[in-house]
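Board notes (copied after class):
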Amino acid sequence: MKELRGKIRESLVSALPVTVIVYLLSATPLLDVSIGELITFTIGAVLLVLGIGLFSMGADLAMTPMGAHVGAGLSRQRKLWLLCGICFLLGMLITIAEPDLQVLANQVRTVMNGTVLIACVGVGVGAFLILAILKIVFRMSLSHILMLFYMLLFGLALVLVVNGNGALLPVAFDSGGVTTGPITVPFIMALGVGIANILGDRRSRENSFGLVSLCSVGPVLAVMVLGIFSRNELSYTVPDYSVSADIAGAFLHTAAHTCREVATALGLIVGMFLICQIVFLKLSRRILKRIAVGVAFTYAGLVIFLTGVNVGFMPIGYKIGCALGQGNPGMLVGFGLVIGILVVLAEPAIHVLNAQVEDVTGGLVNRRAMMVGLCIGVGTALALSMLRIVFDFSLIYYVVPGYFIALMLSLVVPPVYTAIAFDSGGVASGPMTSGFLLPLAIGACVTIHGPDAVLRDAFGVVALVAMAPLIAIQLLGFRGIVAEKLSERRAMRRILDADDQQIINFL
């Protein structure tokens, strides 16, 4: 219980800044909110704090150990086909059940069956999880793989624009961010650690990262290919973000729906884990009991967290966006910067990533430096998203130079920073991004340009949030290189000065 209280205390500190900002805005003429909306938001904030705390506890007890045990157990079988086959199934099934993907798919309705879109994204993740495993087994360079596939991605983006389906680009890039959600990230990252510890070499520290980053590329390519071969036009209808008068009923209805979604997602992971346990893991009952308790914590945490975000945060996010869209554009961009920094603190998977990075790197990359880099990166990304909404230009003007800079940095920074940076991109774009920032962008876009521009301008927020850490974390590594070189130069100068002084004393 002491550990759980500590987790809840940490989540309270994380969620408090966003909550305070909303309360401050509600006390000004800028944001007109009713008592019912404030009560709904307050309940959502309480649920968010409790949910993050329970989820973090569950990730430590279950999701991370499960991934590590499965990765290590599969690797010990020394059967590459078995390793790749199970990882493909894991990647595909978990992604199809990911709640964030369901939220995005429900907001983008096409003439084709929405199940086709979700299945296509699932196959993309499964295929690239196999590629990530092969990277570890054959010691391939992550930066070279990423460079190859991002060049392919830019080529497909050009074809998509020429075909007249350029409006699908923001959705395609957003799909890469939402697929690596709070359920999949702890499991996939631990899976990489388990495989790298058995099959990796002296660079296993670097090899253990990179799975999330590659799994984020697959969906983007898959949706682009789907768009190229599809002649259907995308249509968008702004969801109903109004707060129900029956507050208790709204929370209970959403909680029941979320219970089913999270049960499906976790059930797929637990089912695959149990199959592995029966076939080759053979873990002790003590370990299994600990994992079972962790699964229960994870389930409860995610249900509570997602319910709080969907009912309490989405409507207020949309309303803030509408209010800011009516004011000065500079205020909208500035607010985007501030709220982007604060929202990172409330993303549950961010805390899991930071802890795993500090542990695996032996403190080389500490939690505080990671969090600062992510906050600055995501804040900048959201400010740029608001700027794009104001001036109504294509997402391609951001993603092409942004990813080009990230790929160029990957050639000069230590490989471990590249792997961590690209993993951070997928993790940063979690439920708070799709559940608070995306409605905020939609509200601003509806006010400034109308509903018809939402698909073109508001979507892409998740993509930019996912891209920003790629640059920020690698710049952190570049700063480390420069600091190390300067330290070596100062040390050499002190040695030379000492030698000169000895010569003078001798003479």
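Comment from the instructor: The CA atoms of residues 28 and 294 lie 43 Å apart. The longest strand covers residues 109-110.
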